[in-house]
Design brief:
Amino acid/polyamine transporter I
């Protein structure tokens, strides 16, 4: 059965929306000290690595029954130890992302609506978007199309209106250190995480390998282009040193891990001092958080339904209640008690992403080799790429763990 263009566009936008989340607002914060040249190298390498591993995961998932989760894939090809590791890492990953996006949402909307309590904002945000997630991927697709379209237009507009403020000399500033590099690599890698949507999206696309490949590649290439655009715009407009700069307004006042969305929004407003920039950046930050939270929470919800066998519960209201509590309540409570966990949560996600989305899928391909099974994508069977992926993953884990003593 052929897949309609409408579904293909919708699925591509889900991938784009999931990747272009609140993390895009973390990129200028990190790349300001990393430097433009090093940032571009890390970003392009992260893009290729994550596109490669997303195709591997799609290849493996296409061999599984409809709706098969990461834990079922791991059990099939890595046995019980692989399933247990997959379960633990997946839950840590998804809840960390949920915490990061809810924290970013409450910080961003609090910046826009200062008179409203931040916890109330967080609760409303989770309730509103949780409703669409529980209605199914069709509803998520429809809402996400609207949000993603506005998001892309807004991001392009930001790049345009920032042009008068850009000073090329700012691109040569950096404050590179091992700590900044160790923090930046995992967060940049996480900015290309669309893998989590594959089990849900595959069913939506009738398990068509060619369509899935097209959706994943286009869905990751668009964010790469937009990331480069936003980094060029913000780093060119805001100096690293001096009055109203990254070092003066953000890094001199707090630990980089405690920086939240409101900090970068305030800096941009102080630097540009125009109503147009303020409204545009606030709109963009809100949309970025919304689209990413939709994709992440949808993936977690479907994972729990499959992994905990909630679909076997006959009483519909009880099934929905359990799914909602497990998907939305846990990260919400964490944010209520610890509100400024945005960058810290994103940094923690890095190791989870590396293990779950790079190392485990790559190991699964070796099991597929033993079965002498034909791959849907020829890139999945190139052993040299697997070795490079695992080496890159090990380097990223070492870099992230080094944060403890840097």
């Amino acid at each position: 059965m052929s897949v309609s263009i409408k579904k293909q566009i919708g699925s591509t936008l889900i991938v784009i929306g999931t990747e272009i989340g609140a993390g895009i607002l973390a990129l200028p914060i990190l790349t300001a000290q990393l430097g433009l040249f090093m940032s571009m190298i890390v970003m392009v390498l992260s893009y290729f690595l994550m596109v490669y591993t997303s195709l591997i995961i799609a290849d493996i998932n296409l061999r599984m029954p409809d709706g098969a989760s990461f834990s079922r894939m791991a059990r099939q090809y890595l046995g019980a130890p692989g399933e247990i590791i997959s379960w633990i890492i997946f839950m840590l990953l998804m809840y960390s992302l949920g915490v990061a996006y809810i924290s970013a949402a409450s910080s961003s909307f609090k910046h826009i609506l200062p008179d409203i309590n931040q916890n109330i904002i967080a609760c409303f945000f989770v309730t509103f978007f949780g409703f669409f997630v529980m209605k199914g991927i069709g509803m998520v697709d429809q809402l996400n199309r609207i949000l993603s379209f506005i998001l892309i237009i807004t991001l392009a507009w930001i790049s345009f209106i920032f042009m008068p403020y850009i000073d090329i000399n700012h691109y040569f500033d950096s404050n590179l250190s091992l700590k900044i590099f160790a923090l930046s690599c995992p967060v940049i890698l996480t900015s290309f995480t669309s893998h989590l949507t594959i089990p849900s999206m595959r069913l939506y696309l009738n398990s068509d390998p060619k369509v899935i490949r097209r959706v994943l590649i286009i869905g990751s290439t668009v964010p790469l282009i937009l990331y480069i655009g936003i980094i060029l715009a913000i780093l060119g407009s805001i100096p690293l040193y001096g009055p109203v700069s990254f070092m003066d307004s953000i890094f001199s006042k707090k630990d980089i891990l405690m920086v939240n969305i409101a900090d970068i929004l305030t800096l941009l407003e102080d630097r540009m001092n125009t109503k147009l920039v303020t409204v545009t950046v606030n709109t963009f930050s809100s949309l970025a958080i919304m689209t990413s939270y939709l994709g992440v929470s949808m993936s977690l919800y479907h994972y729990l339904i499959d992994g905990l066998k909630l679909n076997r519960i006959k009483k519909n209201s009880l099934r929905l209640l359990l799914g909602a509590l497990l998907t939305f309540a846990i990260p919400l409570f964490i944010v209520i008690f610890y509100p400024n966990l945005f960058l810290r949560a994103l940094a923690f996600v890095g190791s989870c992403v590396v293990i779950l989305l790079i190392i485990l899928p790559t190991l699964m391909t070796y099991q597929l080799d033993k079965q002498k099974t034909d791959y849907y994508y020829s890139i999945s069977k190139i052993k040299s790429l697997r070795i490079l992926a695992i080496l890159a993953a090990i380097c990223i884990i070492i870099a992230e763990q080094s944060m403890a003593w840097l």
